[in-house]
Predict the structure.
Amino acid sequence: MLRRFVILFCCCFCCLGCHSSKPQGIPTEPVAGIVTLDGSPADNVTVKFNPKAGQGESAVGTTDAQGNFQLTSLSGVPQAGALEGEYAVTFSKMTTLQPVNPNDLLPNASSPKKPASEGPKQLLPKVYQDFKKTPVSATVKKGKNTFEFELYSNVK
């Protein structure tokens, strides 16, 4: 019995020693860029790279106040960026919810009850949100990838 325990312990110890603590995954390529809306930097826009072939991994990033973004894989690939390949690029920007004053919801003699907030609203045209209809595409190649995306609020 002791012999079996020692053999089992040694096997487990050897297996643990062979396991790498470094995360494994498919290497991604660095992807960054800038998004503008009607010529001005677009802040707080979600940028998503959707694989065109239906295979691969999506990657996403959010723009800062200057419209700059960096992508990270959605599937937990350890590095920031995206896999090499062709992508349909989608964009989304939602309004933020404002706190509601409870007194504004109560009816009073001078004004009727105000409706509650309808929730967040999309600020970009629908065509930019649908990966099948978006007019924006990108090709991620080996090495550093930088993109400039100009969006227009009057696109149908």
Confidence is low (pLDDT under 50) at residues 8-23.
